Amino acid sequence: MKNKILKRLLFIILLLLAVLICLPVLFLIVGSFMGTDELNIYLGPVLGKSSGFASWPLLPTYPTFKAYVQLLLDSPEFFVMFWNSIKITGLIILGQLLAGVPAAWGFAKLKVWHGRLLFNIYIVLMLMPFQVTMLSNYLTLNMIGLMNTQWAVILPAAFSTFPVFIMYHFFRSIPDAIIESAELDGAGRMQIFLHIGIPLGSSGIVSAMVLSFLDAWNLIEQPLTFLKDMTKWPLSLYLPNITMDNAALAFVASVVTLIPSFLVFLAGQNYLEQGIAASAVKE
Amino acid sequence: MEHKLKNRAQLKDTAFIIPSLLGVSIFVLIPFIDVIRRSFMNAAASGFVFLQNYITIFQNQAFLLAMKNTLRFMGICIPILLAFSLLIAVFLNAGVRGAKTLKSAYLVPMAIPVASAVLIWRILFHENGFLSGFMHMIGLQGQDWMNTKYVFWILVFSYIWKNLGYNIVLWMAGLTAIPDTLYEAARADGANNFQCFVYITMPNLLPTLYTTAVLAFLNSFKVFREAYLVAGDYPHESMYMLQHLFNNWFRELSLDKMSAAAVVTALMIMALILVLQKVWDRED
After folding, report:
1. Do A276 and B166 touch (CB under 8 A)?
2. Closest-CA distance of chain A to residue B14, Å
3. For the segment A266-276, what is each residue's pLDDT rounded down to a tens digit?
């Protein structure tokens, strides 16, 4: 009896928390449908246009698509940056798949030369903030002649050790027995990897890729440092460049930038949870 | 003959990591080694100054401030995040209604672009923003939160908001892996909820704790993006972190100091990992 009431209470508290947490998204969506005039009414105080405090309605009083039209039909920069982001993110994920998946498998299930040590180095490298290697990255890329090309952003990220870390844990949890029986049946390394490792480890791979997508879609420091040409910039740098004057545009840009992240996130959510779960549990 | 076979097998095994290792070496490892080299040289990298740079940075006000702030930030936000997310995970695991939907809701902030989040914080924490308005309503003074020492807490808040869902999922995964039989046996022996938590749940969550801690640590560095977008190169004192310092040194080409500081940071991170690994004996 007491338990039931407690559970109900808990549910309400957690629900409230969930709503609070999602509030910012709702805020953005509502704002994106507002015209500049209405935005000035509510956000005037923040924009320095009126006194008092900012307020916000539940729904816009005068909903309009104007900002959307302006962004999607009238701003070529937006589109250029959008496709830049798609290209950059896509190539990063591809690179991580090609290099990272075999590496994670190797570390997890095979006897790599000095595997333990190398993997530990991977973990350390994974934790280094960008600023630590920023300079040398710059010089290396300059030397190779990749400076101011998008490859300067793509290649270092494609070889990130983070996905290897995530996928490693998932591959570890694949029972050795399956692999051993495959070996007994005469399967070679490659076959085991392709026909057992990848299928069984697919949640880990997908979850790593979802996380990588979210990361790549939001890259800021690297493009800012390595790309001088604004036409090569990804979408993640579009928003910071909008000043508060153009608030309407900022809202719409936020929502539009958010959508691909959200879609990927929704699609991969199940895998994401499974993948995260694998790294959390001791085998 | 057998010796040769073992070598060949290992060669084939190692082949799996070669592409990754190659890329990592070129784009991550070698730049890092170069940084180590530069930490012993002067700014133009034309002559060796040995340990001079290291001595300099430890006397540098900016470095000490940044170090203090970064450590303070991590020391505060990581435990809060881990504890809070664990609490919620335990509740969700206890069979609250709609746990799956709630989980998804908590994960939403992860999908929001950094710049959008910053936009929201700007409006929320502006002098005339929502928070100030709220304070005004309940009779308190509003202020320009972003430019005071409160900005530190805004960052903490932003960090927790963003990473809560992810950590909840991690904890729940660890929790569901604990066999129910353990709890049943304990209850049969008369243990109450609290005792169950302390003596069964927590010990079994240690491996999860390792992973969550590492990832929380990794994500705490990313807070720099929010900080930079909010306040630029020279934010309020309480928010000035290592990355700000590196960024500024990079811009003014103080490469010698930057390299030394980078090496120190890297060593600290390495030490942390080794300690974590040892303490939780994740030797597998």
Report:
1. yes
2. 5
3. 888 777 666 66
